[in-house]
Structure to design on (273 residues):
């Protein structure tokens, strides 16, 4: 029984290390190449097939800008991705610490109405950033910088 | 006064869930004061809502299914706040299921798209 749990812990560490390595490699590539100008990242299928921006459109470009410290440009690419990032990062860090130390960081209990609000925000954002009339194109990737 | 076994926040004696982290203070088995995890702690204690996972799959482009995951994540926290642990666990299962459906669909589309892109590039040459 004891032995089982030890191998369990080891495989969990291996999984965590694998994930960290993958994340680090992804961030390094994302730091080196700008998705807006280089062909390293394939275009989004939805955008290529329909011409529509999904709520996640611009998030890679936003994270590239963030990695270079340009918060304004990042927000212009995808405000939703940038604004939710601290919460996502905290959740992932909490999970990593749970694997290592067996305890989560203090959990953030998000009240249900906030989560429903987020749902509505995602749907509204998805529609709004595709509308052709001012000021909605500001929400399209790069809209706030006049890049599109 | 009860102290949450998960995050240490003090709660009133009649509290069912920790005001800080939502941990079930009435879980049958809790962490020992020394901090070790006892069997059953995970099952009886916190009910995960997979909100982080749900937001990731939604923002990474798999819209309708990702939204379903976020809706269930909201349901988990609504039921936890109402003290309905069984309902929260049910919603938690659904949230997890929709997260994995979204991740799977996203991966599938990604692979198909990569294949198409490779074939497309080769046919242009």
């Amino acid at each position: 029984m004891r032995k089982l749990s030890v191998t369990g812990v080891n495989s969990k560490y291996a999984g965590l290390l694998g994930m960290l390595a993958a994340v680090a490699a992804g961030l390094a590539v994302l730091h080196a190449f700008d998705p807006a100008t280089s062909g390293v990242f394939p275009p989004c299928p939805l955008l290529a097939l329909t011409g529509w921006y999904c709520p996640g459109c611009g998030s890679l470009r936003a994270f590239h800008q963030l990695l270079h410290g340009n918060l304004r440009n990042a927000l212009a690419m995808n405000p939703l991705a940038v604004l939710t990032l601290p919460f996502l990062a905290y959740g992932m860090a909490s999970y990593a610490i749970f694997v290592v130390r067996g305890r989560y960081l203090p959990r953030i209990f998000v009240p249900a109405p906030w989560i429903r609000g987020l749902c509505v925000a995602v749907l509204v954002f998805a529609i709004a950033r595709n509308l052709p009339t001012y000021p909605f194109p500001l929400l399209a990737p790069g809209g706030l910088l006049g890049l599109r | 006064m009860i102290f949450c076994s998960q995050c240490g926040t003090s709660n009133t004696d009649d509290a069912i869930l920790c005001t800080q982290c939502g941990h079930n203070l009435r879980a049958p088995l809790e962490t020992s004061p020394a901090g070790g995890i006892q069997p059953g702690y995970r099952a009886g204690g916190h009910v995960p809502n997979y909100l982080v996972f749900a937001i990731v799959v939604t923002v990474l482009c798999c819209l309708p299914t990702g939204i379903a995951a976020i809706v269930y994540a909201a349901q988990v926290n609504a039921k936890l706040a109402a003290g309905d642990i069984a309902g929260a666990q049910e919603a938690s299962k659904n949230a997890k299921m929709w997260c994995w459906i979204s991740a799977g669909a996203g991966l599938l589309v990604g692979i198909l798209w990569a294949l198409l892109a490779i074939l497309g590039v080769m046919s242009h040459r």
Q: What stands out?
A: DSSP finds six helices and no strands in chain A.
